[in-house]
């Protein structure tokens, strides 16, 4: 067992009762957020709710303030998922020592590259960074380095890693989380929402500092830095191929003509949603698309009788959906979509026993070894090594089953150095015993 494994075997930091994290504890007012051992509700930002920045002159003042600030910058963004088309940001929150908290309207100020430049090489502190980085990149903000408090919590072994749970367990404060799923495209934004948004970055740097010390105590800090660097340097994700195949309930659709109906309806819905700037689900539900695909209705009247195409839908809407169905019905067989998607990876594991029994045995042994090591290190298995990486190495192991070859195989599939160092020793016997 390595030093990191020995340390990780201890339970991770818990301070729900309000005990100081170390000498000094949180830098929030009152240091540690508890009274008589109970977590303290955090009801107001330290400097009150800042005004929303919605013009270039005010933005210039924020840029100057954050350029003059010091230390890491807490960053968060609010989207309107389920209400609007796409994943653009509708509010950006930042906090930095010496600059205070800023709430910025990226609809009124769509280019925040000057703010990104003012922050420069300072560390960004985010919670679940991969959720917010795409929409922040769209408005000109890209971190040079970051610290992800959610990922840090996973690596440190916390069972609950939502921001509210982490702030309560680590810092002893209770955040009000009732506005997380509201329509952030609303204007003007109600004051309770703005208070919630400001509080989301209020203690983010404090949480980061506490988690850094805990990761260091467990011998995992360098591992975390590798993960954070990988997130910060990752290129934007390419567009999904055939996104219509992800329609909920698609598993019911088996015939190619039915698949064509899903594709046509999905595409028509997406065009309408984009034009109206609303969530596609508000235009037409996935379940309605699947029902139409299974039924192949020949007329508008037949379509209107299906679930999801009820009496509330106007004749014009029904005609546009029927036109999509008709397009699919009229396609020649050569233009119908093929079942499934071409994949470059291994087949589904359930098929391994028939296709390659030795590979199935390797996978079983490797999964058991990864499970045991993840438990020893007190972290989720998927953070120790992705299941896809394990499957690929077990399906096509290196020609030579030695430490160098296995490490090279893991690296070629995107594993970080720390993951390679931890996982290579446990994969060797799993691969060698079923070569």
UniProtKB/TrEMBL annotation:
Residues 255-335 form the HRDC domain. It comes from the Bacteria. Residues 1-48, 232-252, 331-352 are annotated as: Disordered. SMART domains: 35EXOc (SM00474), HRDC (SM00341). Pfam families: DNA_pol_A_exo1, DNA_pol_A_exoN, HRDC. InterPro entries: 3'-5'_exonuclease_dom, Exo_C, HRDC-like_sf, HRDC_dom, HRDC_dom_sf, RNase_D-like, RNaseH-like_sf, RNaseH_sf. Residues 22-38 have a biased composition (Low complexity). PANTHER family: RIBONUCLEASE D. This is Ribonuclease D. It comes from Streptomyces endophyticus.
